[in-house]
Amino acid sequence: GLNVAIPNKSKSIKDYQNVYNDIAEKIREEDEFDNYIGYGPILVRIAWHSSGTFDKNNMTGGSFGGTMRFKKEINDPSNAGLKQADEFLAPIYKKHSWISHGDLYTLAGVTAVQEAQGPKIPWRPGRVDQPENTTPENGRLPDATGDSSYVRNYFGRFGFNDTEIVALIGAHCLGKTHLENSGFEGPWGAASNVFSNEFFVNLLNENWKLQKNAAGNEQYDSPKGYMMLPADFALRQDNKFLKLVKAYANDQDLFFNDFAKAYVKLLESGIHFPADQKPFIFKTLDEQE
Ligand code: HEM
Ligand SMILES: Nc1c(Br)cnc2ccccc12
Fold it and tell me: Is residue 123 domain-shared with residue 164, that is, in the same domain?
């Protein structure tokens, strides 16, 4: 059924900015993680994976219930590597245990994008922890070997259009793939912790070669040592997607605006917020110096 957000009346933007700041300071402090990429990318990913179980056809899944905290969901093979994000957030939750897990996972993704010099992501609290038996079954997250029709169909389950789909996948400007997590090996170049339109620039301009990786899976590799998943490369193989890839490669502001809108929609999928609940827009650490 539809999940109705219940904002905590005793908490203000100041309280949530304190949680944001604790997450942001911990990202800065623990900068050596994953060969100095840091925790930002997996925080963006755990927010997406918490939300990515949503299915508009039966109104199940999504970030509302915070079920990523349960073994069944965090152990989904699609979530390999995200236990480290959950462990990163454990002391934050301990200090601010008035917050729901759904709000914490999504706020962490917002914090990570903004602290990576990405766009402001307006955010609304009010997700309510649900019991373990509401955890969605494994297998609701996307397959990296999909082609363009697979990708369009997958995101159709959320009601996303082509603009929202291409913008969202632009988050692959962050971080890398890890053979032990997903069976794909990341780039030793372009594995970044700065949010930009680089994913689209690389996708268009690099000389990609499809080859088998050490796990026997096919991926696209470039002479500079970058990689693309088949599902990434699919964005070049469909005319409507390709038009958007070119637009974003040539206009970072356009990408930032479209990404912010699509990420909000993703993190709020399946949740009804009160009409008068205005989103919070958090300051970055740099803006508070
Ligand atoms: C067709 C859709 C998508 C597919 C098939 C996909 C697949 C993957 C795979 C296989 C990895 C590597 C995981 C690992 O080996 O550690 C990955 C990483 C990542 N994904 Fe996606 N993804 C998709 C969409 C998204 C979206 C919508 C977002 C966020 C808005 C996102 C954010 C990330 C980030 C930040 C990483 C890097 C994590 C790290 O550095 O450990 N992805 N994705
Ligand atoms: N940095 C990435 C590039 Br460049 C291309 N594809 C990816 C897929 C998942 C995670 C990271 C990347």
Answer: no
**What is the distance in A from the centroid of ligand 2 to the CA of 171?**
8
Q: What is the pLDDT of residues 134-173, one digit of tens each?
A: 999 999 999 999 999 999 999 999 999 999 999 999 999 9
- Look at residues 1, 20, 23 and name the one whose alpha carbon lies nearest to residue 11: 20
Q: Could you give the CA distance from residue 93 to residue 86 in angstroms, rounded to a whole number?
A: 10
What's the 177 CA to ligand 1 centre distance in angstroms?
8
Predicted confidence (pLDDT) per residue in 75-134, tens digit: 999 999 999 999 999 999 999 999 999 999 999 999 999 999 999 999 999 999 999 999
| Ligand approaching nearest to the C-alpha of 264 | 1
Residues listed for the chain:
289
Give the CATH number, domain containing residue 29: 1.10.520.10
Contacts of 73 (CB under 8 A, 6+ apart): 53, 67, 79, 135, 136, 138
Q: Are residues 121 and 16 in the same domain?
A: yes
160 and 198 within one domain: yes
Ligand closest to CA 184: 1
Are 136 and 272 in a shared domain?
A: yes
Whether residues 163 and 39 share a domain: the answer is no
188 is catalytic: yes
Q: Is 212 helix (H, G, I), strand (E, B) or coil?
A: strand
Distances (CA, A) of 75 to 83, 127, 222: 8, 22, 32
Q: Give the domain extent around 34.
A: 3-140+263-288
Which atom belonging to ligand 2 lies closest to the Cα atom of 226? 4
Ligand 2: which of 45, 166, 169, 176 to mutate, judged by most atoms within 8 Å of the beta carbon?
176
The ipTM (two decimal places) reads: 0.98
